[in-house]
Every structure is written in structure tokens, then in C-alpha cells.
Automatic annotation (TrEMBL):
Keywords on record: Cytoplasm, Hydrolase, RNA-binding, tRNA-binding
Organism encoding this protein: Cellvibrio polysaccharolyticus
Matches recorded under SUPFAM superfamilies: DTD-like
Name of the protein in question: D-aminoacyl-tRNA deacylase
Stated family: Belongs to the DTD family.
Classification via InterPro entries: Daa-tRNA_deacyls_DTD (IPR003732), DTD-like_sf (IPR023509)
Length: 146
């Protein structure tokens, strides 16, 4: 399971010209699910996401996590993160989870996240989404559930 996280001042996701999710300061998580992923992988990524220290403390150092600053998390399913880009000039998706498994794990991840953190906003799984954000820093990291 892959999570591209961006520290944001604000972020939103729109589907068919309707805003479906929005946060102010916090993390935009683009979530990629691979075919060998499981609920255990989702739990590991969730622990890493909530504990990852990417927000400034009083001295300006990245020592605070999203929970410590009371930030929001916007989760957007991102099928293309699971692409195999090692060869050629066209991505391959043989490593991506099939849609039914990906949606099950996405729903599981969001449910567990909402049990442990607030506020949480989401996009719509498998929809054509437009994501807007102000990346604070810019600060962007790739998290993996290894």
C-alpha cells in the first residue's frame, strides 16, 4: 500500500463540478493499493500516516504529526500510484489491486482512519476527480506499508 502525502494549507476534491471533500491545514493523502495489499498493510500505513512528523514545532523543526496540530486529512484514491513505470514510456498496472479489492481496502482504511482521527474528508472511489491543493513547503513524502 502506497501513500503519497502532501502537507497542505488547504485541499479539496471535486467530482462533476461538486465539491465532495475539503480540509484546511493538514495532509492530502493520495492512496494507491497494490494487488498483494491487505488490512494489515492498511493498518501499518495508517499508523505511519498518523505518526509521521511533517509539521513544525515551536522551533520550526518538523517534529509534530497531524494529530498534534489538529489538522485534517483528505484521502483520495489514486490508482495510478500503483503503476509499474520501470520499463518503457507507458505505465503498466499489473501491480495494482483489482477494483473490488482496492475499494474494499480503501473503505477499510478510511473507516479505521475516522475511528482514530478527525477531521477526515475523502474523494469518491474510482471517480474522475479534480484535486486542488496548496502544498505547504512544498512538503511531499511517499509512505509505504512495509
Amino acid at each position: 500500500m502506497l501513500g503519497l502525502i502532501q502537507r497542505v494549507s488547504r485541499a479539496s476534491v471535486t467530482v462533476e463540478e461538486k465539491e465532495v471533500g475539503r480540509i484546511d491545514q493538514g495532509i492530502l493523502l493520495l492512496l494507491g493499493i497494490e494487488k498483494n495489499d491487505s488490512q494489515a498493510a492498511a493498518d501499518k500505513l495508517l499508523d505511519k500516516l498518523l505518526g509521521y512528523r511533517i509539521f513544525a514545532d515551536e522551533q520550526g523543526k518538523m517534529n509534530c504529526n497531524v494529530q498534534q496540530i489538529g489538522g485534517g486529512i483528505l484521502v483520495v484514491s489514486q490508482f495510478t500510484l500503483a503503476a509499474d513505470t520501470r520499463k518503457g514510456t507507458r505505465p503498466g498496472f499489473s501491480t495494482a489491486a483489482p477494483p473490488a479489492l482496492a475499494e474494499e481496502l480503501y473503505d477499510y482504511f478510511v473507516s479505521r482512519l475516522r475511528e482514530r482521527h478527525s477531521p477526515v474528508a475523502t474523494g469518491i472511489f474510482a471517480a474522475n476527480m479534480q484535486v486542488s491543493l496548496i502544498n505547504d513547503g512544498p512538503v511531499t513524502f511517499m509512505l509505504q506499508a512495509d
